[in-house]
Automatic annotation (TrEMBL):
Keywords: Kinase, Phosphoprotein, Phosphotransferase system, Sugar transport, Transferase, Transport. One of its GO terms (biological process) is phosphoenolpyruvate-dependent sugar phosphotransferase system. The keyword Phosphoprotein applies. SUPFAM superfamilies: PTS system IIB component-like. The lineage of its organism: Bacteria, Bacillati, Actinomycetota, Actinomycetes, Micrococcales. PANTHER family: PTS SYSTEM N,N'-DIACETYLCHITOBIOSE-SPECIFIC EIIB COMPONENT. The modification Phosphocysteine is found at residue 7. Residues 1-105 form the PTS EIIB type-3 domain. Pfam families: PTS_IIB. This is PTS sugar transporter. InterPro entries: PTS_EIIB-like_sf (IPR036095), PTS_EIIB_2/3 (IPR003501), PTS_EIIB_3 (IPR013012), PTS_sugar-specific_EIIB (IPR051819). Residues 99-118 are annotated as: Disordered.
């Protein structure tokens, strides 16, 4: 699954995408995560499974969802705490849930081995 992490210019989303890739590797999931500036999103939707929209772009959700829906891509807004999170687990779980894949992956595990709920 390809995840696009979208922010205004693509800078802060680079760190989130890197943490998502690390978490996916720890879980042995076939996931790629890429940073994407908002203005280039329409050209990058093909082949993507999920768009994770930065919390500061939540007001653009309807516009992004319209573009993504026509491409068959799920969209979720990241929580405000995501950029300070030390791991990519929360963002990865959000992407999997948005794509409807969380329930097919079995019990989700954080990269530290613990359960994601508690």
């Amino acid at each position: 699954m390809r995840i696009l992490v979208v922010c205004g210019a693509g800078a802060s989303s680079t760190f989130v995408a890197r943490r998502i890739r690390t978490s996916a590797t720890a879980r042995s999931l076939a996931v790629t995560a890429e940073a994407c500036p908002l203005d280039s999103l329409p050209q990058r939707l093909d082949g993507s499974g999920v768009v994770l929209l930065g919390p500061h772009l939540g007001n653009r959700l309807d516009d992004v969802r319209r573009s993504a829906d026509s491409a068959g891509v799920a969209v979720a807004v990241l929580p405000a705490t995501i950029f300070s999170s030390p791991s990519g687990d929360e963002a990865l779980d959000l992407a999997l849930e948005a794509a409807g894949a969380l329930s097919t992956q079995g019990e989700p595990q954080r990269s530290d081995g613990g359960p994601t709920h508690g």
